[in-house]
Design brief:
Blueprint (H helix, E strand, L loop, with lengths): L1 H20 L2 E4 L3 E2 L10 H15 L4 E2 L2 H15 L19 E15 L5 E3 L2 E3 L3 E14 L5 E12 L23 H23 L3 H16 L1
Parallel strand pairs: 1-3, 1-4, 2-4
Antiparallel strand pairs: 4-7, 5-6, 7-8
Helix pairs in contact: 2-4
């Protein structure tokens, strides 16, 4: 009996230590610098929720709950305004245990319809003809909540077509009005960007080592293409 109790205590200690070692993060609402037709009033909040789910699904991060994050940010803004006592106000850099804040801006979005008519159709199934595609770019920053310094930054891109895009297993769901885009090229591009951000941060903040070579190569290729 004593051995069993000791084993349970040991497991609890190990689990607690593993959780403590995980980077604690919160994702704030996405911003939009494009004229994308799919963007709506709550899209930034819904995208932040999707990324939070994706990061939590990796098991490598301790995520701050979205609603709690919003409440704490409001308290910090109120304290910083000088309208309440400095002693009782929320302190910036003490964000409910969140060591890092993830911010993201949709910096580019394009959609095109390429090709023309002439496709074949048989019993309602079309082959060929016009093809839709979507391109999405997101500028990512990870900020240390204590120092205010930008620890990680990256531009993530994705292009998807109506023909499909293999992006692996996506852990999060489409929230709010984004749900209607889930099976469209726009939705596929959003899904691909979320996965790329999640995998990059898992590598840069947790895995490190050899996996960073792949992302350095991707960044080099992206910069060359942009030039």
């Amino acid at each position: 009996m004593k051995t069993k109790t000791l084993f349970i205590i040991l497991l609890t200690f190990v689990a607690g230590a593993a959780l403590a070692d995980k980077p604690s993060m919160g994702v704030i609402d996405f911003r939009n610098d494009t004229s994308a037709a799919w963007w709506y009033g709550g899209a930034g909040h819904d995208l932040a929720g999707m990324l939070t789910n994706e990061l939590a699904g990796t098991g490598k991060f301790k995520m701050v709950e979205r609603d709690k994050l919003d409440a704490v940010l409001e308290e910090q803004d109120l304290a910083d305004s000088g309208r309440i006592s400095k002693k009782s106000g929320a302190k910036i850099g003490k964000l409910t245990g969140a060591k890092y804040l993830v911010t993201a801006t949709v910096s580019s979005y394009e959609e095109n319809v390429s090709g023309g008519g002439g496709g074949l159709s048989f019993r309602g199934i079309s082959v060929g003809g016009k093809k839709e595609d979507a391109y999405l770019a997101v500028d990512l920053r990870v900020i240390d909540t204590t120092t205010g310094e930008i620890e990680f930054t990256r531009s993530v891109e994705a292009r998807a077509t109506s023909k499909g895009l293999a992006v692996g297993v996506y852990r999060g769901g489409f929230g709010g009005n984004l749900g209607k885009y889930e099976k469209t090229p726009t939705g596929k591009a959003i899904r691909a960007v979320m996965m790329e951000i999640s995998e990059y941060l898992s590598c840069a903040m947790v895995g490190q080592g050899d996996c960073m070579a792949e992302y350095q190569a991707k960044e080099g290729a992206r910069r060359e293409k942009t030039k």
